Amino acid sequence: MKSSTDHVRIHFGGDTLFSGKVADKMTQNGADYPFKYVKDLFQKDDLTLLNLETPVTERGTGAKNKQFVFKSHPDALKAMKKAGVDVVNLANNHTLDQGTEGLLDTLSHLKANGISYAGAGKDSAEAYAPVYVERKGIKIAILGFSRVLPEMSWNAKAGRPGIAGIYNEDLKLAVQSIQQARAKASIVIVVAHWGKERVTKADELQNSIAHAFVDAGADLVVGGHPHVLQGVEQYKGKWIAYSAGNFIFTKATGRPQTWDTAVFEADCKTTGQCDLKMIPYFTEIGQPIPKSAADGAKLLKSIEKLSPGIKIDASGNLKSLAPNTSLGFNSSKSTSAEQKDLTQENSG
């Protein structure tokens, strides 16, 4: 049963896949295994969004020259839908791991399971376009964009399937799409794939892009890709969560920061104003598990330290003590940043 109050409750989870060791866990324990501890949240809210960090296909040709290449079985989407997931972001550096064939299969399987998607498509018009959902008469727009591409051929173009990249001039397409969504929807959500892996502090490029998204009309910006949680910022009254970390994922031995995650819970009004809360979880192989009260408190405190001007109470509720406090970036730009994040090899 969905919430019946006068606002919409939205949950966000981080990087999600059903490949490799996660698939093994699902074979052993059932397809519903990843959602055991989150389905109650997701089934009772108004909208749930995840970053789907894998193509979903039984076909395709694996991408070359990548350290990690993913592929997930379509049956996983049935479990995802049953657990209450409504929308996924596809703008990331794994959606084309099985080539164009795998991407198009992913789109078809999502449609067949009644799961909406943003950030990829059969061409640039579809990839950059918002997906609209309506809850309680409130129109919500969701857009997805990636600042992490293994190669530029993954970028959707006219007549070419791909994802919504935000390099160079394509960032303008993203801004225009957000502006168009702002004119049509009460709430505008942007899911971004960006940053550097296993780095807990968001960088200047993430900061400037996030601010551009809010300036264009985004009410919420939620990021992924670093595989760790990053800080949270309130800019012009709008929340930016720079990285939601891993969610349904494998578990990197010896990298405990990648084992921390959270479900972000937003309560939003028709004006686009949202309250934000973090619910701490531990990322086990293929399954987010609630943290104990003590461990959850430690996690919240660590995120508070990464978030200047933000206070997180014992229940995970976020409050801005000094509106528009930035994360401490200066105004200078790195001339090499444009190329550094394009050429790096990324696992998620």
From TrEMBL:
SMART domains in UniProt: PGA_cap
Alphabetized InterPro entries for the sequence: Capsule_synth_CapA, CW_Biosynth-Accessory, Metallo-depent_PP-like
Domain Capsule synthesis protein CapA: 9-251
Biased composition (Basic and acidic residues): 338-348
Listed Polar residues bias regions: 323-337
Any Pfam family hit: PGA_cap
Gene3D superfamilies for the chain: 3.60.21.10
Region listing for Disordered, in residue ranges: 323-348
Family (UniProt): Belongs to the CapA family.
Cited PANTHER family: PGA BIOSYNTHESIS PROTEIN CAPA, POLYGLUTAMINE SYNTHESIS ACCESSORY PROTEIN RV0574C-RELATED
Name listed for the protein in its UniProt record: Poly-gamma-glutamate synthesis protein (Capsule biosynthesis protein)
Organism: Paenibacillus shirakamiensis
